[in-house]
Design goal:
The chain has about 400 residues and is α/β, with parallel strands linked by helices. It folds into 2 domains: about 220 residues, Rossmann fold; about 160 residues, Rossmann fold, CATH 3.40.50.2000. Helices cover about 40% and strands about 10% of the residues. The chain has 13 helices and 12 strands. It has a 6-stranded parallel β-sheet, sandwiched between helices. Strands 3-4-5-6 form a 4-stranded parallel β-sheet, sandwiched between helices. Strands 1-2 form a two-stranded parallel sheet. Strand 7, helix 7 and strand 8 form a beta-alpha-beta unit. Helix 3 packs parallel to helix 4, helix 3 packs parallel to helix 6 and helix 7 packs across helix 11. The longest helix has 29 residues. About 40% of the residues are buried.
């Protein structure tokens, strides 16, 4: 693993060797500080802050990674699709690389909305025009990152990227979504694979939880992730929305500093700093989530319907897919209030179609191949240097 020093401890615990990139620019603790700052932002402001981080990451990776990869005698790279500069490094070093889509598929098509927008799937002419406008806006926001990459490619005598999708691997692109969770697409290359999630218990810390406090009521589990889990007002809204319903609410604050100051919430929910999410989902009737891809797929893998409260980055796009697949409802964080959230909770708990659709996606995940299929694709691409066709 080639990354910032903050990722080193968890990576080594998972049995993977580690090389630090950009320690002077990203000293220990900087990732936590950045995520805490991002947790204070929403919508366009959060996206702009993320773009600034991406640009800094790109500059540092393009500068330091070639030397580290050479010294480590790397034969192939697995690149997160949201790290477009890494593919250029692989090209420069003439080593094969494969893309993993750990979030929403980023391949652009005018039939599919930008993942940063909460728009429904609409392949009509008007929908395509709307989508093109959305991509134009995101391209303008991402211009600093793209310029950083293109300037370095010019110095390395690599041809410029003519289109956004040119930055992705021509050997294999792999999404941890099941294909049923993606909007209909006819634009993806023949070497694009939907393998389902790569989740594992390995490397996850053991978390204490007061299981003895759980009742026989339907369990509603709320977590806004480790990035955006510091919205005390949202936790209060969630608690008030569940008051009076025949449910038991568990809130995980995601390690948020709000833990010490949040006080007693209405309805007396179980509030913990961290929850054993995979274990708790086996008991959950409904999850209230920020709509991160990992949490969303963990819900679907356990056939748990959702109410998503997307805040920033690709979460609105994930929320749109949750709604489109019938696995839940989605309420943008800036518009959420007690009445709207209560209505959504009652709707998802009261209508069995949400649970049935979550079970349908659970079955889709089971037949997608997961991490074993992913590893087979990566190995074949790395050894043959030929496209691995789906």
């Amino acid at each position: 693993m080639f990354s910032k020093v903050d990722a080193q401890e968890a990576t080594l615990k998972a049995g993977i060797s580690f090389r630090v990139i950009g320690e002077s620019e990203f000293p220990k603790g900087s990732m936590v500080d950045s995520l805490a700052r991002l947790g204070q932002l929403k919508g366009r402001a959060g996206l702009s802050y993320t773009v600034d981080l991406f640009n800094k990451n790109a500059r540092v990776f393009l500068r330091d990674a070639p030397g580290e990869l050479r010294r480590s005698q790397v034969d192939a790279l697995i690149v997160d699709q949201a790290t477009p500069e890494a593919g250029s490094v692989a090209e420069y070093l003439n080593i094969p690389f494969v893309n993993l889509c750990s979030a929403v598929v980023l391949n652009r098509a005018d039939t599919v909305p930008t993942p940063f927008a909460p728009w429904d799937y609409n392949p009509s002419i008007l929908g395509r025009v709307r989508n093109r406008i959305g991509y134009a806006v995101s391209k303008r926001l991402l211009r600093p990152v793209l310029k950083t990459i293109d300037d370095q490619r010019k110095q390395w005598s690599l041809p410029p990227h003519r289109a956004a999708n040119d930055r992705f691997s021509t050997l294999a692109q792999i999404s941890q979504q099941p294909v049923e969770f993606e909007f209909p697409r006819a634009d993806l290359p023949s070497w694009f694979h939907f393998t389902g999630p790569f989740h594992s218990h390995a490397g996850r810390p053991v978390v204490d939880f007061p299981y003895e406090r759980l009742t026989d009521q339907s369990l509603v589990y709320a977590s806004l992730g480790t990035i955006h889990g510091n919205g005390a007002h949202l936790f209060s809204i969630i608690a008030r929305a569940c008051m009076g319903l025949d449910v038991q609410l568990v809130i995980s604050l995601g390690g948020s500093s709000v833990f010490e100051s949040i006080g007693k919430l209405p309805g007396d929910p179980i509030v913990v700093r961290y929850a054993p999410q995979l274990e708790l989902l086996k008991k959950t009737a409904l999850m209230i989530t920020h709509g991160g891809m990992n949490t969303t797929l963990e819900c679907l893998n356990n056939a748990v319907p959702m109410v998503a409260i997307p805040m920033a980055n690709d979460q609105p796009g994930i929320g749109a897919r949750v709604k489109w697949t019938g696995c839940g409802e989605s309420l943008p964080a800036k518009n959420v209030n007690v009445a709207k959230l209560r209505t959504a909770i009652e709707k998802v708990l009261g209508c069995q179609s949400y649970r049935r659709n979550a079970k349908r996606l659970q079955a889709a995940i089971a037949r997608s191949g997961g991490v074993t299929r992913t590893a087979d694709i990566v190995e074949k691409a790395a050894t043959t240097r030929q496209p691995v066709l789906a």
